[in-house]
Sequence to fold (191 residues):
Amino acid sequence: MMSVRALKVFVKKEQGMVEGEELLLAVLNSAPVIDGKPTDALEPAAEASRWLRGLGGCGTTAEREAVREVRGALHRLIRGDSTDVDALNAALGHARLCPTATSEGLQWRLEAANDQELAVRVVLAWSTVREGLPGRLRPCANEECNLFLVDHSRPGTARWCSMAACGNRMKARTHARRRRTGETVPPSDPS
Fold:
């Protein structure tokens, strides 16, 4: 069991991050494309078990499959490929948030089967990030990249998972294409 400050967004003042954001991004970004080849932190099973335990899970095969289902559903939902939330509802199906009153206010405790708790926490984190930072959770604009980002920039215009990797690569490609074709930069396009 873990304490969850769900139902209300808690913003870490020093980092500007919403509660659960690190967990959400760890799971969403657990299937990156490296050197043109898809990889997956949920494979092989032994490494996946260690990785899941590092996120606070129990590392079982059932947990790995639950997280894989939630990750796939969130990938499709965030990319706009689907509006199907059945996998998210399946993960949440037997979970409960139970309140306890304390002198500090309400404390929320997540109750879920051990091998479902991590998947439930990821869905709760997704919901919290969407509510706390509307429109800021998005896929990297590099179509060859499989990563996601939460945009913390003031104008909310971040496009790449990393300026050092995807941002520079995409800007270099755009520059090379413009030089090759003689295309000029439109005044409103900063790239």
